[in-house]
Every structure is written in structure tokens, then in C-alpha cells.
Amino acid sequence: MTKFTKVLLAAVHGYAVHSAVGTECSGAEGACESEPSSVESSAMLQVQTGRKTGPPPRHPPDMSAKHCRSNNGVGKQRRFRREIFDLDTDQWLKVKLAWQKLQRQGRYDAYSVDHGKHYGINAGDPNDHAARRTSQGGFLPYHRALAAELETELQNVSGDCDLTIPYWNWAEDESANDLKNSKMWNGKYGGNYDGCVTTGLPRGWEYPANSGNCLKRAGDKNTHWDAGSDIVDLQSIIEDNSQYIDFCAAIEGAHNVVHCGMTNGDHGLGRNAQDDDKSNFCNAVGKASPSDPLFFLHHLFIDSLWFRWQDYNKNKGDKSAECADCREELQIWATKFNVGKEGGCRHGVLTPISRSTAIFGDQNVQGASNSAVCLRYLPKGAPAPGARLSALQGKKRQKRDDMSKCQRLAWAIDNDRCSPEELDKIPCVDNPACQKDVEREILDCQGFAATAADKKACRLRVEALVGKKATRCEKNGFVENPTDEELHMCEGCANVDLDCMNVEDDYSADDDGMADAVE
Which of 250, 83, 261, 91 is nearest to 173 (CA)? Predict the structure, then answer.
């Protein structure tokens, strides 16, 4: 696996949900003033033991300005969004239950109301998106902000800082040629595609809540469903539009076809206007399309394409911060893609926790930051954060000194701490399963290749890299009797002692701290 793939698809590690155990005080006022803070306790323990103790704990989910942020609420929260069908059953169930709970509490309707206001219920208001239709710049940051708001609420409801809303990559769905056959419509995921929704995530939902008006869809089992754009079309939009405003308008066009096509029985071409009122996901309830949770699964796929566009243009002068027609509160969601450790966020974009904790105009919540979250989208098929060694280490949090060499090496590789020369010294493990990473890289490259020649170039490039690895393997040999860890790593590590494992900044509050690298 190449260093590029390791950066893009690596097990980038997050933080476990926990909070510092507090002490309840009673009696005289100020009786607990002498109790040390968790930061002070950590420093004291380090002095006493002579060893690093790891960063302070992460703040619990509470929707405040400190919500789920590392270093007792002043560091970063890392959000990794994955494709819905890459989640295991337990991961999806946690999202599903939190969403259903939010809806039962009557709090989910607010997102539909907000969306309607943004799209021109008050069309005379110059701040409304609909009043500025000559340019579509607000489309992407508005939906990124709306999704962040919902995600923060779901984390709070579930008590899980690692919960994120998945995206649905309909362009690479296994039934992309006829999406009515997608497993999205089964009872485990999105529910039935025709009539009142009685199965899946939104089973029995009504909009407005308790109104007697069911959430409905208008899919037709006798009609071919086509999303209108395949993955090559979408990659062309990314590559052919270097200016933000052009990309935003083009990707909104692709998005529109899915909104009012997929659940109205065709791909939007030649669709009858009277079909618009058959599906909440389209216009059955005006601009309240978020009333169908499919809205967010769809929009986060569009947001992932924006994320990919930001990555693609990171060295060409990313224009995404130049959202000239955006309201001030939206401009802070159109941030640049970070390449290195800038802002403590590798290969991601920095955003606020939510709109209510953002800083703009006269709104300045104490302790808030417009770069509190490091947002990353993992490509379809990518392993979950921490997947490289998860089968071996379970949920246990380990400090650097308690980690095996394999775990330390995995962390160093995944956090880009090893130079090419150091990587070249690592012996190989002769395990057929290790080839899966190579094939995944070929597929990832080819999936976004526009022409047959580009697809061939992908294979040649990857095969050349594989050949380079083969040369290294021949030079260094294969590990005899590899351990379970080495087999899982696809790298020999028991006898490796690389300088890149001996980094000194493992516990930086704004970095992927070593203590949090193996949960």
C-alpha cells in the first residue's frame, strides 16, 4: 500500500467518549477549591512517575462550545464520515436510534423549518438564499452547517462523540444502474420507497410531527431509476470547475436530479410537474425536504464531493473560501482543505461545532471557535478509524509506553511520521490478504478516471508502486513466522526500531495524540 493510500485510507484515530470523574462537594463553600484539575493532575502524575500521561480527556457531548472537543474542551473534535453501507450493524443502529429519538422528542422538525426559511419562505429578505439566485455560492456551506447542527444534536442525544451521519454514495451503489433495487430501501436502512413510509429509519414519521400527514415517497417499481450522474460524471465536475462558484452551481445541478427524480420514478428528465407533490424528499411539503432523513444521506454525499473538490484544488489556490454571495454566517463554513498539521487538522477541513457555537457578527459564544472540528470524509470502502489493529486491541485505550512495536509503528505510519527512507526499511509479510489494499487503491483510482486511457494509467501507476514494494520485499525478505499483529498490519514490525516511532510530540493537544491512537 502506498503512502498516498495510507494517508487517504489509513486508520486515522479518534478519541474515546469519556469524561473526567468529578468529586461532589458538600459542606462549607469552597471546600473543593483545592482539588486539582485534570490538567494539573496529569502534570503532577508526569512529574511523579517521570512518564507522559497523555492528553487531558475529551469534553462530553453537551452542545456547548466545548462539545466533544479534546483537551478538556479547548482542542479539536474529529469527525469521520463514512459511506452508509460501510458501517457495521451496531454503528448504523446507533445512528438510527439517536435520529428516531430526536424525532420523537419533536426536535427534528426544526431542520425542515430552517431549510424552508433559507430557501425563500421569506423571499423578500435579501439574506434568503432564494433572493440571491444569480449565484449559488451559499448552497454548499449552508448544507454543511445544517448537517453539522444535526450531527451535534445526535451526538448529544446518544451520548457518543464518535457518532457521525453517514453519506449515501448513490453513484457507486451496487444497484447504481437501477436504484430502486438498492438496499437503501429495505427495513434496515431508509425504508420503503413508495407511499407512506412504514419501515426503516423513518417508519411511521409524520410531518409536521403528530399532524396525521405521513412521510411519503413516490418511487415506482415499474420504472427504471437512474440518478442521472455516475461517478465519472461527478469526478469531471470536480476536475473541470476550478472556480468555487462554478463547481457549486454544477454540483447543485447533479444534486437536483436525485432530489426530485429518484423517489418520483425516473431520473428527472421529462418528469411531470404534477409528480413533485408525491414525495417529501422532493416538494410534497414545500421546501421541507429534510423531513425525510434521506435528505441528509444525500446531501452529505454532495458535501463529500465538495470535500474531494477542496482536496483536488488544495495546491491550485482553493477558491472555496471566496464565497462572495454568502451571508457572513455561511462564509465560516467554506474553509480550505488542510494538507499538513495546520490548525491541528491533517487532510481535513476546519469548521465550528455548530451554527450556535460559531463566531460571526455580534455572536461570540464564550469558548467558541470556528475551527473546533476537523472534518474528514472517508472514501467508500475505506476502513473505519482504528481498523488496522482494532481486531487485536479492542476498545482499550493505551499509552505509548504500553503499546507494542506493531501498534506504535501503525500509529507512526498512519500519522505520516515515517519518511520514505524509513518506510523502505520495513520488511514484508507474505499474506494474500495484504493485496486487498493494492486492489482497493486501483479501484479507487479507476472509479474516478474519466477515460479508458486514464483507467489504464491507474493500473500501470499502481502496478509500478507494487513493483517497487516487491523490490523492497526481495531486498529485506519476508518475516518468518509472523505474529498475529504483523499479519494484521501487513508489515513486519517485531524487529523494527524506526526513528519515526520515537517522536516527541505524541501528546500535542491539537494533534492525533498517541494515547488516543489505539481505541
Answer: 83
Domains in the chain, CATH or no CATH each: 3-29+388-516 (no CATH), 77-377 (1.10.1280.10)
Q: What pLDDT was estimated at residue 222?
A: 77
Q: Report the alpha-carbon distance of residue 394 to residue 215 in Å, rounded.
A: 40
Q: What is the DSSP string of 449-485?
A: --SHHHHHHHHHHHHHHHHHHHHHHHHH-BPSS--HH
3-state SS class at 518: coil
Cis check: omega of the bond before 482, within 30 degrees of 0: no
Hey, which residues does 196 pair with through a beta bridge?
216
In 275-429 the beta strands, taken as DSSP E runs, fall at 337-338, 348-351, 373-377
pTM for the full predicted model? 0.69
CA–CA distance, 295 with 115 (Å, rounded to integer):
11
Residue 313: closest CA among 349, 281, 279: 349
Cell 429534510 found at: 290
Distance CA 320, CA 331 (A): 9
Model confidence pLDDT, tens digit, residues 479-518: 888 887 887 777 888 766 655 655 443 333 333 333 333 2
Q: How many beta carbons lie within 10 A of that of residue 335, not counting itself?
A: 23
pLDDT bracket for residue 159 (50, 70, 90): very high
The CA distance from 162 to 13, in Å, is: 11
DSSP annotation of 331: H
Q: How far apart are CA 132 and CA 119, in angstroms?
A: 10
How far is it, in rounded angstroms, from Cα 408 to Cα 415? Answer: 11
In the three-class reduction of DSSP (H, G, I as helix; E, B as strand; rest coil), residue 409 is classed as helix
- CA distances from residue 343 to 81, 86, 135, 339 in whole angstroms, order as listed: 20, 29, 30, 10
Q: What is the chain's length?
A: 519
- Residue 212: CA atoms inside 13 Å, Cβ hemisphere, count? 0
The Cα 109–Cα 292 span in angstroms is 10
Which residues, 6 or more positions from 504, have their beta carbon under 8 angstroms from its beta carbon?
A: none
Instruction: Please give the C-alpha separations between residue 8 and each of 16, 162, 189, in angstroms, as whole numbers.
Output: 22, 19, 27
Predicted confidence at residue 300, as pLDDT, reads: 98
Would you call 195 helix, strand, or coil by DSSP?
Answer: strand
User: Around 478, how many Cα atoms within 13 Å sit in the side-chain half-sphere?
Assistant: 10
Residues 247-305 have pLDDT tens digits of 998 999 899 888 876 555 433 323 344 544 578 888 777 788 999 999 999 999 999 99
Amino acid identity of residue 423, one-letter, is L
